[in-house]
Design brief:
By secondary structure, this protein is α/β, with parallel strands linked by helices. The chain has helices at residues 71-74, 79-82, 106-117, 129-138, 151-159, 176-181, 195-208, 228-239, 256-270, 290-302, 334-341, 344-354, 363-367, 388-395, 399-409, 423-430, 450-465, 471-486, 553-557, and strands at 8-16, 25-32, 35-40, 48-51, 56-59, 61-63, 86-91, 144-147, 149-150, 214-217, 244-248, 273-276, 307-311, 316-320, 373-378, 414-419, 435-437, 502-505, 526-531, 534-538, 541-542. Strands 1, 2, 3, 4, 5, 18, 19, 20 and 21 form a 9-stranded mixed β-sheet that branches. The longest helix is centred in the last third of the chain and has 16 residues, at 450-465. 56% of the residues are buried.
């Protein structure tokens, strides 16, 4: 019987990090039938025995902010994630993703998210969350996948890409999908809900179809068009299921403290758990504001709120290049944006707005120099690895003019890395036990190395070299805390009876090899990675096993409400 097909596997002499945050202990761990069957101080017998010789054995890592929605169809083996020890990816981020989508806006949604989430190579065959999850399941991914309901997609079911408030009185026109999803005939105008009720119902449908919470992206249309009353109403809907909201906040630079305070207030008023996406402080003038952010979290917790966050361990962010445009320049569909950017007067106005602080997320100003805006991907493949300063010099244009020219030429399909953060803020957030980790991985071109190396970099740089966090805190933030947040009843911990998502690593050997110059270099140091009890990585190499599950909230929760988990009772 081979190691990969063994009915049971025992890992002996393992330094177990059980995911709770408690110190490691030496034990043998036996896996059988996809679950952790036994944990013992004494050596355990099995069909296959692996001597870890003191290496760590931890729960599989959970990537709390991923953008692999479409990449997993083309690359279901998930090599870049598994070699970091990641066994679960959480999709549907930033309020803009792949489901739900109105039939008449499917092509527009595919165009808008291709820079973040990739392409499918065909028209999306789904319109609902359940349809997408079924399609993803058919791709047989090697990692587990969970999904958030993206606010912008839900909003587009009612208001398309219009920048306007939703009204409690305005009657929703019943389109073919809305009629079906809200369970009413097209002609029944008298009993049609107002828009605020309708968007709450759309969220309910997404949760019933398997979404774990609702993400929002306050710099990404149409999620950014939400007014606070709309978000409070949705927070209330989430609270009824003890679910949670996940937010890319309005501003992560000059107004980061104000933005997070506003978000926490929305969740407080709606009564739901608040989770902050890719927590950061951008712009040199704001470095150090991490202290004020954590003070806000402390105050919220003292008021009885639940607050968590995720982060990646790099000083550069990454997103679509269109995020550098002022909000007024991003309005409308893709064709309208491209047409607008062709105007010399519009480019002059953009240059003026970017050159000074304002009441919007001005990432170019926060970067301080066009040398700090690195192009990571374009639709054509041109200029990847060049800065906007480089491109402007080659074109013989001013930087803003060159940026607009690039966006038009590439049909807006451009991503970037923006160097805006400081190590002191990164380390302060890493040390906080309310946090979790993420890759925020955007693939294609020469992507930000976080997609391929984020978790390994935390182990190598911040656990081993800088001692910012201990191995046990790492395991809690990478697995236990994410599982608690998602409501995964039998994942995220090394416990008897739990699903055997596991990673064995030699801390002294872990290396994040991905760089900005050469990002597609997978990590070293992961000796074994198991997904659902099957060995997906052995000695740092993929085995070809694809045993990931597409997780649905109602199945993981055991019902319609996220459970309050008592992990102590599982000991």
């Amino acid at each position: 019987m081979t190691e990969l097909s063994a009915a049971s596997i025992a890992f002996r002499d393992a330094r177990v990090l059980d995911g709770s945050g408690r110190p490691p202990f030496t034990a043998s761990v036996r896996v059988a039938d996809g679950r952790i069957e036994a944990i013992s101080e004494a050596p355990l017998a099995a069909d296959r025995v692996v001597d870890l010789d003191g290496s760590y054995l931890a729960p599989g890592f959970i990537d709390m902010h991923a953008h692999s929605e479409l990449r997993l169809f083309e690359n279901p083996g998930a090599r870049e994630k598994l070699t970091q020890g990641i066994t679960t990816e959480v999709l549907g981020q930033d309020g803009v993703s792949v489901a739900p989508v109105p039939p008449n806006l499917t092509d527009e949604w595919a165009e808008r998210v291709k820079s973040l989430d990739g392409t499918l190579g065909e028209t999306w065959p789904w319109h609902t969350v359940s349809g997408y999850l079924e399609a993803l399941e058919s791709a047989e991914p090697a990692v587990n996948c969970a999904y958030y309901a993206p606010h912008g997609n839900i909003r587009s079911m009612l208001a398309g890409f219009e920048d306007r408030p939703l009204s409690g009185e305005h009657v929703v026109a019943a389109g073919p999908v809305t009629s079906q999803r809200l369970d009413r005939p097209k002609s029944d105008h008298d009993t049609a809900p107002g828009e605020l009720d309708a968007i709450r119902q759309e969220l309910e449908v997404a949760l019933e179809e398997g979404a774990f919470g609702m993400s929002k992206g306050m710099i990404y249309p149409p999620s950014s068009y939400a007014r606070d009353d709309e978000l409070v109403a949705l927070a209330d809907t989430l609270a009824k299921r003890d679910s949670f909201m996940i937010s890319h906040v309005w501003n992560e630079t000059d107004r980061v403290v104000e933005s997070i305070d506003r978000y926490l207030d929305i969740c407080r008023r709606g009564g739901c758990h608040a989770h902050v996406s890719h927590l950061k402080v951008g712009g040199q003038q704001n470095w150090g504001d991490s202290e004020a952010v954590l003070d806000l979290f402390d105050d919220a917790v003292n008021r009885g709120q639940r607050v968590t966050f995720d982060q990646y361990p790099y000083t550069a962010g990454s997103t679509m290049l269109t995020a550098l445009l002022p909000p007024w320049a991003r309005q409308g569909d893709s064709e309208a944006i491209r047409h607008r950017l062709n105007s010399a007067a519009v480019r002059d106005r953009i240059a003026t707005d970017i050159s000074q602080p304002g009441d919007w997320e001005n990432l170019a100003y926060a970067a301080g120099s066009w040398d700090n805006i690195l192009i990571t991907r374009t639709g054509s493949g041109r200029y990847q690895g060049d800065t906007i300063a480089d491109i402007a010099a080659e074109m013989g244009r001013e930087p803003v003019d060159a940026m607009c020219e690039l966006l038009v030429a590439e049909n807006l399909d451009v991503t970037m890395a923006d160097f805006v953060m400081a190590e002191e803020d990164i380390e302060r957030f890493l040390a906080d036990d309310r946090g979790t980790f993420c890759t925020d991985g955007i693939f294609g071109g020469k992507p930000h190395p976080r997609a391929i190396g984020a978790f390994s970099r935390i182990l190598e740089r911040y656990v081993r070299e800088r001692n910012v966090l201990s191995p046990e805190l790492l395991a809690y933030k990478a697995a236990g805390n994410p599982a608690d947040i998602l409501g995964l009843r039998d994942r995220g911990y090394v416990r008897e009876g739990y699903i055997a998502d596991l990673v064995a690593f030699d801390l002294d050997s872990v290396a994040a090899n991905a760089t900005y110059e050469n990002p597609f270099q997978c990590s070293d140091g992961m000796e074994y990675v198991l997904v659902g009890g099957e060995i997906a990585v052995r000695d740092g190499e993929l085995t070809g096993k694809r045993n990931g599950d597409v997780l649905r909230s109602y199945e993981e929760w055991g019902g319609a409400t996220r459970p309050e988990l008592d992990r102590a009772a599982d000991d």
